[in-house]
Amino acid sequence: MSNINNTSNINGTNKINGTDNAGNTIRTGLVLEGGGMRGMYTDGILDVFMDQGLSFDGVIGVSAGAIHGSSFVSGQKGRNIRYYKKYIRDNRFISMRNLIKTGDIAEVKFCYHDLPEQLDLYDYDAFNRSKTEFYAVCSNVETGEPEYIHITDMKKQMDVIRASASLPYVSRLVETEGMKLLDGGCTDSIPLMKFREMGFAKNVVILTRPKGYQKEPEQLAMAKIRYRKYPAFVEALSHRHERYNETLKQIDELEKKGEIFVMRPDKPLEIGRLERSPEKLQQVYDIGRRDALMKMRDLKHWLEGKH
Fold first, then answer.
1. Which candidate in 47, 183, 188, 291 is catalytic?
2. Helix (H, G, I), strand (E, B), or coil: what is residue 13?
3. 55: annotated active-site residue
């Protein structure tokens, strides 16, 4: 049985720390799946976590999970739902026009510079001060392997977030950290096992699909043409569904053992991957908030080792 106690970090939030029977420090982790606009479900949950003063030793996010997780680490409750709703119909945010003009469905300058630096300020200083380790998962197209990149300076490493969220086919390759990268979901959609391997033993996992979901095989015809220079990446895409479904199996087993705490929607979220309706964004965000509030007591008991 572990001994867990609440302590406060420099921001006044409650970080769950403790030791196991051998006296080893237990490190808590938060694992955030992607899923495009389904990520508004995650955003709703994270805002409740901030309301409740919860923080973790480490956060790892994939694609939309990395985007929402970054505002969680900087402590900016309400920021993501605010700017998503305000700009979702702005063609600079996401549009086929961007794709045709630039090769990216999301305009790089607008989304990763104008927005966080001028229109809805991202608190880079708060992120850099945070004691929470933050990782974004990207896919290395040359090796076909996932890259788990530790972001220590958000402004200098913003291209890592961009790479993690750069969907294949509708985004250009992002060259950063000495690699050619795309969406992390192509190689490790739910990086729980990697986080455990990295020493985060007590993890909360936020999924954007309901229990029972299984990923179908990729259609590879376009991939073989678009990424013909990167055969390892095409091979990775061919096994994407197998890795994803195996991870879900591992999650179910660990959840039954009480080793992880999982939050996910009860039924499929009625929102498109590239949804442009502010009302639907709000609805999915509200579902996330509702689920987090309903499960908060159980979550706190689990974190404190009372399950």
1. 183
2. coil
3. no
